[in-house]
Every structure is written in C-alpha cells, then in structure tokens.
Amino acid sequence: MRKGKRNAAAAAKKANRMPFGSLLSRTAGLPPGSPVYIGQRDPTASTLSLYVYDEGSWRVECPATTAELLSLVDETKVNWINVNGLSGGIVEKLCEKLGVHPLVVEDILNTQHRPHVENYDDYLFLMTKMLGLRPDSSIEYEQVSFIIKRNLVVTIQETPGDCFQQIRERIASGAGRLRKSGSDYLAYALLDVIVDNYFLVLEDFGNRLDRFEPDAANPADPKTYMAGLQDLKAELLHLRRVIWPVRESIASLGRMDGGLFSPELSPFLRDLQENAVQAIEAIETYREQAASMLEIYLSSVSNRMNEIMKVLTVISTIFIPLTFLAGVYGMNFQYMPELSQPWAYPTLWGIMALIVIGMLFFFKRKRWF
Fold it and tell me: Could you report the per-residue pLDDT of 259-303, keeping only the tens digit for each?
C-alpha cells in the first residue's frame, strides 16, 4: 500500500513537471484558435452552475445545456456562471454564444499557459492558477479562466472542486458587500479567495520545510533527506513561476480601460496585489531556507570527510617511519651488525614505540587532532 502511494505521488510530481514542449506538440500545424485540450490530466465532462443575485434576492441553477443556461441569465442582476471540466464541447459552445474570441477559447483549453489578463472590446479575459493540497501533501495546480462582462462573470475550471465555497455562502447569506456590488466585485472576491488559498498551501509547505531543519547537520538517511530537500526546492521554483505572473495580472486589472472595474474597486485590487507579493516573498524565504539547509547538510558532509581524512593522514604519517625501519631490517644483507645481537629486536621495537609516542605528542601539541 505504501509503495502504491509513493508511486502515485511520484507520478503526480512528474505530471506537474511534464515538459511544456511535449504538450504543445499536440497542436503543431493546427491553425490559430483551434479548440484542442492541452493538459497534464484527463479532461472531465463539463458541468454547469449559475448564481443569479442582487441585493434583495438570489437563486442557483444547475442547467444541463448551454442553451438552458443562457435562458436563465438575468441581465438586470449579477450572474456567475461556473463551468467544471473542459470536455464535451460545452466550453466552446458557451464561449461562442457569449461572443468570445477563438484565441481565448484556445487559451482556456490549454491549461499550460502562464497566468495573464487580456482586454477585449466588451469583456476581460483573465487566466490564473488555483492551488490545492493532495492527500500526500503534494501541491495540485489547476487553471481557472475568467471571462468578465458587465453583470456577468464566467469561471472555467479543469476539474470539479474548488475554493469558492465561501463565495457561495456569502451570496446565500447576503453577508458583506458582495450582493450589493456588481460583477467586478464578484471577480475580485473570487480572485481574493484564490490568492488567500495560496497562503494555506504555503503554510503547509513551511511545515514540511521545518521537518527537514532539525536533521540538516546529521540526517538519519542522507540519500532520502537529500532527495526530499531537492524535491522541495523544485516545487518552490515551480510555485514561484506560477504565482509571479498572478501578481502582474492583478496589477494589470487596475490599469484596464473599458469601465468593467469601477474606480471604487482600486483599493481592493491594490490589497490583493499586496497579498500576491507577500506570497512571492514567502516563497523566496522558503527557497532561502531550503538552500541554507542544503548548505548545512553539505558542510556537515564535508566536515565529516575532513575528520576522516585527518585521522587517516595521522595514521599514515605515523606508519611512514615505522615502515622505513621495517624496510631497512627486511633487506637481505648478510653483514648487518644488529642482526646478531640479542638486544637488537627489543631495541628496534622500543625505537618504534618512541617514534609513535613522539609523533602523537607533536600532533597533539599542534592541535591536529
């Protein structure tokens, strides 16, 4: 069972780091705007949900088709369409009905794009990343696409399950200013929840790093420790690549022309951008912490190697003169005067012992060991 979990975790990590070029090769030769799914997971069938609300009322619908969905939209209120899953052609049909550019549809179906924002004539297209934690504590990356129009926000996710439950509860309860505001505030609230969820993932990541720190100088299993630390460093680099453009996208929203985001929303967007910056700073801190632990581990390995080499060098140095004496008296000469003396053998041992004691005293005085 444990082996199966390790294999699943390894497969998930490998999928998260699949080369981008190998995925893009699927669309080689196709004309621009071709709606082809590109992703690291099998696409799930699309399901639809619709929240319609204003200050005084709200309702939720779960239509089966795009035609039924659009017939339930109330243009006098705020409408939030959420699409879970990218297969079945629902995304293409919905975007066609809403007048969304084919290149935007292509970007939605290509889940390997970096987060960015684009301003079209009557809508904004925003692509960002939502983070989650798998049962094995590895990080799951999911692309979320936003189409923001007046009184309409469309969110398109790769798979069912998200971090938007708080927004649904706020719509149902009427708490806060969500039901009193327009679609721009809804888009901000959804982005705010996504960014807040970054900190939950980063907090878990910090806890994982803290478990490595006590063993940095002397890990019980050096190979496992080194591999785990390298995996954390690689994950941090991937996190940085994901969250860094999110900050740029949020900053771009405040500068967009077209009136979809009201000036009153500017302080909220600045606060959201600051939160994204804090997430990036946390990642940089964790990267420095991981690099520091790696340096401590490598220094401890180097120090242990130096201690071993010092002991071996001392032993070798002591045996050099002893080997010389043994070599001299091991030569096959007939007329060596000491060989016929009864005191020669113990005297030679005494000289060797004095050499060893003298060298040990000299090394100790020099503090070589």
Answer: 788 888 889 999 999 999 999 999 999 999 888 888 888 888 888
With cut-offs at 50, 70 and 90, classify the pLDDT of residue 198: very high
Residue matched to tokens 């001392």: 314
Can you tell me the distance from the alpha carbon of 237 to that of 243, in angstroms, rounded to the nearest whole number? 10
CB 153 within 8 A of CB 190: yes
**C-alpha to C-alpha distance for 303 and 313, rounded to whole angstroms:** 15
Domain boundaries of the chain, sorted by first residue: 2-299, 329-365
CA distances from 208 to 110, 135, 141, 177, 242 (A): 31, 14, 18, 37, 20
What's the pLDDT score for residue 27?
57
Put simply, whether the predicted model's pTM sits higher than 0.85 gets the answer: no
Burial of 250 (C-beta count, 10 Å sphere; 0-12/13-18/19+): buried
* Dihedral sign computed on CA atoms, order 214, 217, 220, 224: positive
Measured N-to-C along each axis, helices 183-212 and 222-253 cross at an angle, to the nearest 10 degrees, of 160
What is the per-residue pLDDT for 293? 86
Please report which residue ranges of the chain form alpha helices under DSSP H.
2-16, 20-24, 66-72, 90-97, 102-109, 165-173, 183-212, 222-253, 266-328, 344-365
DSSP-based three-state secondary structure for 240? helix
The CA distances from residue 343 to 200, 323, 330, in Å, are 82, 20, 17
How many angstroms from the chain centroid is the CA of residue 234?
Answer: 7
Tell me if 123 sits within 8 A of 94, measured CB to CB. Answer: no
Mean pLDDT of 293-318: 86
What tokens appear for 51 in the block?
């929240």
Q: Please work out, in degrees rounded to the nearest 5, the angle formed at the alpha carbon of residue 229 by the alpha carbons of 227 and 234.
A: 95
CATH of domain 2-299: 3.30.460.20
SS3 128: strand
